[in-house]
Design a protein that fits this description.
- Two copies of one chain form a homodimer.
- The first copy, chain A, has 205 residues and is an alpha/beta fold.
- Chain A has one domain: Rossmann fold, CATH 3.40.50.300.
- Helices cover 45% and strands 21% of the residues of chain A.
- Chain A has a five-stranded parallel beta sheet, sandwiched between helices.
- In chain A, strand 5 and strand 6 form a beta hairpin.
- In chain A, helix 1 packs across helix 7 and helix 5 runs antiparallel to helix 6.
- Chain A starts with 5 loop residues before the first strand and ends with a helix.
- Chains A, B: Pfam families: Guanylate_kin (PF00625).
């Protein structure tokens, strides 16, 4: 059996990553969602162990010290990180795992797991990004301006990614995301076992 | 508009490349089939300008001299090659072009056009390959043995390819081929124009 594909999904805040991932999980059975650990406080409706594992700073720093995280980063005064053991178990079982993390974290994951697929999700235009951030209605204008400033920075990092998906229509975006991930399984480097087998069989014919 | 994707399709003789390509063209509208030039004689049912451009050796060598071929090779005493102008026109128009050529040719094309997608098609096993070659009923056992010997050699070259597609069921194989080609369009390196545009827009917000 082929191992699962590890995908890192990044994209501007407001690109619709969260919604796309949720829909992907509903629509296709191939995936295991990795749940991040964070020290930020839960937003309304967020449940510990579902959206995030909510941790105290001290607990989180203990996880870092014990190398229990694939990657972690500090962002707006909070830690965010990916617990390692769950991800490795799921990949071994052939499940595809998606991590929603930003660029620094993405590059750290790629370093540790070189066959990670890095996918960047973007709205069709900067104007549309602003419209979505305002439309959400959950953030102050100050936070929105901060996010747009951050988007400018993030846009410089797109070249580090493998694939770019434009989130114009949600269902299309989800299907495209599914397709790029499933297509990874056709890569020659991910089929070493099959190739070795058919070579051997040909020698024995 | 994005340029079309140039794909080279290779695989063991008997893997079903020809049938798969024919079905792909029927099923999807994205493709332009490149027609090769060859000096081998037409098989029954083959039409000049449809399966191949059938050429005399002298004509073919003139095409080589005038650099009118993307690649060419000699195989079992005959020349096979890919006329350049048609391929370039189709890619510019946004059509995806597939070349069915063997490994040496594939590598030459990749050298000239570095963003060529190299796809290798294989039957699910060596035994199945032999069964298909015999089942065809168009070749002598001597030719079949030659093809199997050649398959052994070709198997050593699979690592040069990007993607591997196992042709077990024709329709599945065709859909997978379509998916790997269309997915190429999501590659970051093929979206430089869009990325430059959204960066600029973000700066201007």
């Amino acid at each position: 059996m082929q191992k699962g594909i590890l995908t890192v999904l990044s994209g501007f805040s407001g690109a619709g990553k969260g919604t796309a991932m949720k829909r992907l999980m509903e629509k296709y059975e191939d995936y295991a969602l990795s749940i991040s650990a964070t020290t930020r406080k839960p937003r309304e409706g967020e449940v510990d162990g579902r959206e995030y594992f909510f941790k105290e700073t001290e607990e989180f720093e203990k996880m870092i010290a014990q190398d229990e995280l694939i990657e972690y980063a500090r962002y707006v005064n909070h830690y965010y990180g990916t617990p390692r053991s769950y991800v490795e178990e799921q990949l071994e079982k052939g499940k595809d795992v998606i991590l929603e993390i930003e660029i620094q974290g993405a590059l750290k994951v790629k370093e540790k797991f070189p066959d990670t697929l890095l996918v960047f999700v973007t709205p069709p235009s900067a104007e549309e990004l602003r419209r979505r951030l305002i439309g959400r209605g959950t953030e102050t204008m100050e936070v929105i301006e901060e996010r747009l400033a951050r988007a400018k920075e993030e846009a410089r990092g797109i070249d580090c990614y493998d694939c770019l998906i434009i989130n114009d229509d949600l269902e299309t975006c989800v299907d495209e995301l599914h397709a790029v991930i499933q297509n990874e399984k056709k890569k020659v480097m991910r089929n070493a076992e099959f190739i070795a087998k058919i070579r051997e069989e040909l020698e024995e014919l």
